[in-house]
């Protein structure tokens, strides 16, 4: 079955999906509608996809027979549109983060339960070959006992991404909401559930934001994340590091070229343990996984529970910042 969907949002992410992703997945997904408040942006993407353009999801729902929606809107709109689509009986793929509050995460989960539809979150890292290969190497014992985890996300936000809703109007809101669920997701794949967070923030040059997170896992492992907007990006960044008693794992992520890999490093040298990839390849894998989950009635790789766990870590980090860096326990899953 080919899914008929509406692409909701014609900004930077919507453009990537319309230009680079959906044309390669026509056997699985047909974009029948493009929804955006901006008339010119929605018309441009719709023309490229052979779809029709609408100013609201409600208009698209009234005019089209749809199976699902792909939500690529600013963070604050994710939960409301996801719930609107679920209440209309549609499957949903929603850009990370799922929501900005725990209550909105619960609201989306309740709507999914009522609708009995598949909800997947467009969280890239669990789909990356490098992250999956690193998890397999941990499970196989290649690194020995895992001692600690670290992640790094450091780059300069490009003009097409530097929107007010992404930068945020309060301390650390932009950086943590935009990138925090990303690396939280990767750390949770590698280390399991996170149970406590302590966060610190430093300001620097105009527009520069640096945030660190110290996390404790349910297993007792410790981890850390460093986020920085304002430094030149590397062509290939080692964004993940696993320290073990026998070896280390480097997770290299590449954005503009297909050079991202996972490497096993020990006293004898380094070897690559997965095929190379570009980070942007994962956008296709996310959609393909969502479509297959719908077709086979299975959970998607990143569903509501995982996305909610990621959001809870960011919420705890924000609380920690407000409390001067105090460690904040997450409590039991909701």
Account of the 3D structure:
The chain is an alpha/beta fold and 334 residues long. It has 2 domains: 3-124 and 283-301, Rossmann fold; 125-278 and 312-329, Dihydrodipicolinate Reductase, domain 2. 36% of the residues lie in helices and 28% in strands. It is built from 10 helices and 15 strands. It has helices at 12-21, 39-49, 57-63, 78-87, 102-115, 129-139, 164-167, 173-191, 281-296, 304-322, and strands at residues 3-8, 29-35, 52-54, 68-71, 91-95, 119-122, 146-155, 194-203, 209-217, 222-229, 236-244, 248-254, 262-266, 269-272, 328-329. The strands form 2 sheets. It has a 9-stranded mixed β-sheet, covered by helices on one side. A 6-stranded parallel β-sheet has the order 3-2-1-4-5-6, sandwiched between helices. Helix 2 links the parallel strand 2 (29-35) and strand 3 (52-54). The longest helix has 19 residues, at 173-191. It is globular and about 60 Å long.
Which terms summarize this structure?
single chain; 334 residues; alpha/beta; Rossmann fold; 2 domains; nine-stranded mixed beta sheet; six-stranded parallel beta sheet; 10 helices; 15 strands; globular
């Amino acid at each position: 079955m080919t899914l008929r969907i509406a692409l909701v949002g014609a900004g930077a992410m919507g453009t990537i999906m319309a230009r680079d992703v959906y044309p390669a997945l026509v056997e699985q997904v047909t974009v029948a509608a493009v929804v955006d408040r901006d008339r010119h942006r929605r018309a441009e993407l719709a023309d490229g996809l052979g779809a029709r353009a609408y100013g609201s999801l409600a208009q698209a729902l009234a005019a089209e027979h749809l199976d699902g929606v792909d939500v690529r809107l600013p963070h604050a709109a994710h939960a409301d549109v996801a719930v609107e689509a679920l209440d209309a009986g549609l499957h949903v793929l929603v850009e990370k983060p799922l929501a900005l509050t725990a209550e909105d995460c619960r609201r989306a989960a309740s709507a999914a339960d009522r609708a009995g539809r598949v909800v997947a979150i467009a969280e890239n890292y669990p789909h990356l070959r490098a992250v999956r290969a690193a998890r397999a190497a941990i499970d196989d014992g290649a690194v020995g006992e895992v001692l600690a985890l670290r992640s790094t996300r450091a780059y300069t936000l490009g003009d097409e991404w530097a929107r007010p809703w992404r930068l945020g109007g309060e301390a650390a809101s932009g950086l943590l909401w935009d990138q925090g669920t990303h690396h939280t997701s990767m750390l949770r794949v590698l280390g399991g559930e996170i149970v406590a967070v302590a966060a610190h923030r430093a300001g620097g040059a105009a527009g520069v934001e640096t945030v660190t997170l110290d996390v404790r896992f349910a297993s007792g492992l410790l981890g850390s994340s460093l986020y920085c907007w304002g430094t030149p990006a590397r062509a290939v960044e080692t964004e993940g590091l696993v320290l073990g008693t026998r070896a280390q794992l480097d997770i290299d992520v590449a954005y503009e070229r297909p050079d991202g890999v996972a490497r096993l490093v020990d006293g004898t040298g380094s070897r690559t343990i997965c095929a190379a990839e570009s980070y942007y390849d994962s956008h296709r894998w996310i959609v393909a996984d969502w479509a297959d989950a719908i077709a086979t009635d299975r959970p998607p790789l990143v569903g509501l529970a995982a996305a909610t766990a990621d959001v809870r870590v960011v919420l705890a980090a924000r609380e920690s910042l407000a409390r001067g860096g105090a460690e904040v326990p997450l409590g039991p899953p909701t």
